[in-house]
Write a structure and sequence with these properties.
Rossmann fold, single chain, 5 helices, disordered N terminus, alpha/beta, rod-shaped
């Protein structure tokens, strides 16, 4: 799915980093996602989550918002600044749903929100959708790259055609001049008769 230059491009599967201070929940989600076929890493606090994100470069980060120390919103803002992770999908996994927290999550740069306890069906649906988004993004980028190459090749061909036309015009001019000389000679010969 992802190329070597894409986050998590090692196995071609969607890679997910779960960061949650509730170890049992984080580990359970990790087991479930692995059963679904995803590459999963787990971290139990924001600092370790940031380090793991920088090392592993996952496609998706499932972040607990209410962690002690570096909370999920702070971690999300830091992840957005890591070169190569700017486009990783950030999912807030939280029990908080009031307007204040929703605003904080939006400002932190989360792409999606899941409310605890999340249903496995909802989580799997989101991950499958993210897989499709990432696959389509990679295909679109490849098509755009190829279009740029083709545009360059087309420009080169047009430059060659312009040069050939210029040379052809010069050849036609020379032929016309030669024909004019021949006509003048023919006219002189006819006048001499």
């Amino acid at each position: 799915m992802a190329g070597a230059d894409q986050p998590g491009g090692k196995s071609g599967r969607l890679s997910v980093l779960i960061v949650d201070d509730n170890r049992d929940l984080a580990d359970s989600l990790g087991v479930l996602m692995r059963l679904w076929g995803y590459d999963v890493c787990v971290a139990y606090d924001g600092v370790d989550g940031l380090r793991t994100a920088q090392e592993q470069r996952p496609h998706c980060l499932l972040l607990d918002v209410g962690m002690p120390g570096m909370d999920g919103c702070t971690l999300a803002r830091h992840v957005r600044l890591v070169p190569g992770l700017e486009r990783a999908k950030l999912v807030a996994h939280t029990a908080f749903s009031n307007d204040e927290y929703v605003r904080m999550m939006d400002e932190a740069g989360f792409d999606y929100r899941l409310t605890k306890p999340v249903s496995p069906v909802e989580l799997e649906g989101l991950l499958r959708m993210l897989e499709q988004v990432i696959r389509l993004t990679a295909q679109t980028e490849e098509l755009a790259r190829r279009n740029v190459e083709l545009a360059g090749e087309t420009k080169d061909l047009l430059d060659e055609v312009k040069q050939d036309v210029k040379e052809l015009k010069e050849d036609v001019k020379e032929i016309k001049e030669g024909l004019e000389e021949v006509r003048e000679k023919v006219d002189r010969l006819e006048d001499d008769e």
